[in-house]
Amino acid sequence: MTTVKTTINRRHFIKVSALGGGGMMLSFSWLAGLLPLPAEASPLSKDWFELNSYIKIAANGAVTLMSPNPEFGSNVKTSMPMILADELDIDWKTVIVEQADFFPERFERQFTGGSQAIRQGWKILRTAGATARQMLVNAAAKTWNVPAGEITTEAGMLYHKASGKKAGYGEIASVAAGLPVPEKVQLKNVRDFKIIGTSRKNVEGLNIVTGKPLFGIDYTQEGMLIAMIAHPPAFGLKVKSVDDTAAKSMPGIRDVFTIKTLKDDYERNGFDTATFTELVVVVGNTTWEVMNAKKALKIEWEKISDTNIVVNGWGGKKTVRIPVGLESTTEHKAKMAEWSKKPGKVLRKDGDPEGAFNKATKVIERTYSAPFLAHNTMEPVNCFAHVTADRADLYGPIQAPEFITRTLSARLGLPKEKIHIRLARMGGGFGLRAYGHHMVEAAVISQKLNAPVKLVYTREDDMTYGIYRPTYSATYRAALDEKNNLLAFHVKAGGIPETAIHPNRFPAGALDNYLAEGWEIESNITIGAFRAPGSNFIASAEQSFLDELAEQMGKDPIEFRLELLDRAQKNPVGKDNDYDPERYAGVLKLVKEKSKWNQSQAKVNRGVSAYFCHNTYVAEVIDLVIQNNKPVVQKVYAAVDCGIVVNPDAAINMGEGGIVDGIGNALYGEMPFKEGVPQKNNFNTYRMIRHSEAPKSIEIHFVENDKDPTGLGEPLFPPIFAALANALYKATGKRLYEQPFLGSKQTLPG
Amino acid sequence: MAIFNLNINGKKQTVDVDPKTPMLWVLREHIKLVGTKYGCGVAACGACTIHFDGIAVRSCQLPVSAVGNKLITTIEGLSENGDHPVQKAWLEHDVAQCGYCQTGQIMSAAAFLKKNPNPTDEQIESAMNGNICRCATYLRIKAAVKTAAKSQTL
Ligand code: FES
Ligand code: FES
Predict the structure, then answer these.
(1) For the CA atoms of chain A, what is the radius of gyration?
(2) How far is the CA of B26 from the centre of ligand 1 (A)?
(3) Which of A120, A582, B71, B113 is deepest in the core (most CB within 10 A)?
(4) How far apart are CA B141 and CA A395, in angstroms?
(5) pLDDT per residue as tens digits for the range A483-529
(6) If 0-12 CB within 10 Å is exposed, 13-18 middle and 19+ buried, where does residue A115 land?
(7) CATH code assigned at A238
(8) Is residue A480 one of the residues assigned to a domain?
(9) Three-state SS at A296
(10) Which residue, of B19, B48, B76, is where some domain finishes?
(11) Residue B37's domain spans which residues?
(12) What per-residue confidence (pLDDT) applies to A75?
């Protein structure tokens, strides 16, 4: 059993109060969960103690738990309260889960992303649940006049065996509300979990299948207007002039105007990505009328000039140049080919890679590439806003409300406390909802109209707006001696406008001579986080190359990886290696066993791949066959080490999603450009994976251990690209270097 | 603008709209039934699927003027309490991730199973191919369709 404190620097981050109508409310600081407890040394600012999450136990026994994180489908609204409920020792069936609203003064760092919600919430949720339970025990001990140590709890009930006394939590809660919060509480033994580790259904399940208004786009209120924007059709263009005569006279149209969302000298934060800051806005009564009027706009566009913007993001303050030009994919490819031949910026160097390459008898060099990708969340970008002279109310999909509050405050000229964001369930996230430009747009429009307004993007507006996954290229080289021993390894990876390289990840640490270089080419096409940023490409390239290398060396691809990991564990090179070789090897061994890797698979073609990102280890094997010149994935095996699995069935659902999404993007995903114009603007041209193309079956196995849980939204996605590429190579004898593997032709290259 | 008398989920509804307005927007904005979702507006995603005289159609392509007195069923009218066999199967398999596409998926599946109560995997795949799920819950959707097919009360 672990004992944890409920204080930091002797200050409580958990408080108790009486609930109106009887019962108790235990409030706690969500932020305390982010601290590596115990953190006694450094003084902490006041906001670490802001109580922003709660457990309510009413006199009638009803238990309400609050979920502080925005929900976009990773099921945190179910899994986080499960953690609280387990320590509290209540019956899950009696729990009500509420979504917290966003109040900047209470919820700094409220963010879903990077698969971090469960990892960060784990400790604080457990501590809070255990504290509430202990206080109920103490209250019962006082009421019954028996030692607290003799009281046990189960499913929301308190028992004293010797006297036969028992009571429900609700009956005792009002007494507990008057007791002091204990300084220390004991957490459950991992083996004693009753809810964690069992599958619990999505708390919103019924609302989803009955079509309840859960999403931002579903919002409506009396007097609400509908707004749509027209943005430039190409990157590198801006508004020159607008003829809105026809549009303005159309039925149901209230107004047409141009807005400037961010001032030119505004210092942006890292999530202030806005492709077009000047937009033409059409406002009217209904979506259909506004859509039609939008088509009647006559807008002249002109080229932008070189612009510098200041971005103050997580990496510090920097000036970013937005170059002029109407870019095309053909030109991007040519530039990337040119840059991959030039020396890049050295990001890590171990030993003497140049020397080893000079001594090599054989050098293997391969280049892999991938295109821009659009997020294409099923719910298009939208936001409701009502801005008045002294208050702004917003409702919409957003992953990072904290950041956008600052932006809104600066743009609207309202203090942060006057900005109220309610968090809608998001119709998909995948990284897109970290960027809040739509909130600024909706707020600026509402402020101008002095009316409540819902901004809705058409699918075309959404898909052609930018904030894409960057286009990437990576060149790998390996030096072999005459006995096919691996002497040196070199990766040089870049992208437009960002590289995908993580220089301290595997196989760094397993090789005496290792070199990692990066390069970046500027662009006016905007990019953003996309499910496992960077990893989603570099894993595909690296794990394809390791497969090619194993073949050249005459080794089994799994054994080859295990040998490298063995080296990294026993005798690591360098100190900053960003993975645990034992856990990494663990998932490879598990997938090997579960897929029966060593038994010959006569009828199918197999590929393997493994990757570590977002604190979770994953290895995957794909079995496929070719039918009508198209791959049919028959089976996917995945082995995952994410520590304790909080909600196994939901975890498997997430994992399946990552795998299918990865196969879809590897086969079909691409956003090409011509003269700055995105060449796909809706689902009739942008190929998404569909029912018939999904794998026929997926098996996900978790490594069983007692480690603190890590996330699952992203880690199963990156490795699947290479598992697919490696299986396709087995099937066709041809190595595919360019994603998407099928593309618009929809069949394998001959 | 013109007046239309519609029969939606067994209720008479009167709207005064442009005759070309797709049912998607009539439902969502005039009748305030928002379970029918906008995903693409070009019949390419299936998020807006409703039943038109029992047949699954894309409501983004169905102008209100073409409805006449034919019966429209939306997700809100599929069952009283979310207990249609397809909805129950969806809950049993805990299909949803973000959930946005699921009402359209359910409407497609319900209409399909009426026609073909005992489908093969391939038939399910091709019947559901017009419904995109960006969260890629396809395997669970297929499993749920099979579970619903086993139910007697479709
Ligand atoms: S919105 Fe109708 S099919 Fe996509
Ligand atoms: S559940 Fe998210 S799009 Fe299907």
Answers:
(1) 28
(2) 14
(3) B113
(4) 30
(5) 999 999 999 999 999 999 999 999 999 999 999 999 999 999 999 99
(6) buried
(7) 3.30.365.10
(8) yes
(9) coil
(10) B76
(11) 2-76
(12) 79
> Quick one: A408 and A485 in the same domain?
no
Query: How far apart are the CA of B9 and the centre of ligand 2, in A?
Result: 25
Are the Cβ atoms of A205 and B28 closer than 8 angstroms? no
- Chain A residue with the nearest C-alpha to that of B41: A459
Domain final residue pick, A392, A424, A456: A456
Q: Calculate the alpha carbon distances from B61 to A386, A532, B23, B43 in Å.
A: 32, 36, 8, 7
pTM of the model: 0.94
Q: Return the HEC string of A559-598.
A: HHHHHHHHHHHHCCCCCCCCCCHHHHHHHHHHHHHHCCCC
The verdict on A599 and A707 lying in the same domain is yes
A46 by Cβ neighbours in 10 Å (0-12 / 13-18 / 19+) ranks as exposed
Residue A267's nearest CA partner among A439, A444, A411 is A411
Instruction: Assess whether pLDDT exceeds 60 at residue A386.
Output: yes
Cα distances from B126 to residues A301, A642, A748, in angstroms, run 43, 35, 22
Residue-level length of chain A:
750
**Residue bearing the CA closest to ligand 1, atom 3:** B43
Query: At CA A566, angle to CA A561 and CA A568, rounded to 5?
Result: 95
| Structure-block tokens of residue A655 | 């994992």
Total domains present in chain A? 3
Query: Around Cβ B98, how many Cβ atoms within 10 Å?
Result: 29
**ipTM attached to this prediction:** 0.98
pLDDT of residue A10: 66
Element (H, E) at A239: strand A237-243
CATH number at residue B62: 3.10.20.30
* Beta pairing class for A616-627 and A605-613: antiparallel
Q: Which of A392, A426, A456 is the last residue of a domain?
A: A456
Same-domain check for residues A160 and A274: no
Q: How many CB atoms within 10 Å of residue A482?
A: 8
The arithmetic mean of pLDDT across residues A662-690, rounded, is 98
Q: Tokens 């599929």 correspond to what residue? A: B78
Co-location of A114 and A248 in the same domain = no
A683–B106: do the CB atoms touch at under 8 Å? no
Number of domains in chain B: 2
Tell me which of B15, B43, B76 is where a domain ends: B76
Do residues A179 and A237 both lie within one domain?
A: no
Structural domain including A620 reads 471-745
In sequence order, what DSSP letters do the residues of B118-130 get, joined into one string?
S--HHHHHHHHTT
Q: By C-alpha distance, which of A308, A328, A305, A329 is closest to A317?
A: A308
All residues of chain B having their beta carbon less than 8 Å from the beta carbon of residue A226 are 29
SS3 content of chain B, % helix, strand, coil (to 5): 40, 20, 45
In this structure, what are the phi and psi dihedrals at residue A13, rounded to the nearest 5 degrees? -105, 10
Together in a domain, B65 and B107: no
Residue labelled with tokens 């600081």: A29
B98–chain A nearest CA distance, Å: 4
Task: Give per-residue burial for A524-556: e unless 16+ CB within 10 Å, then b.
Answer: bbbbbbbbbbbbbbbbbbbbbbbbbbbbebebb
Residue of A nearest to B35 (CA): A211
Could you tell me if A497 and A528 lie in one domain? yes
Query: Which residues, in sequence order, are CB contacts of A681 under 8 Å at separation 6+?
Result: A459, A460, A463, A464
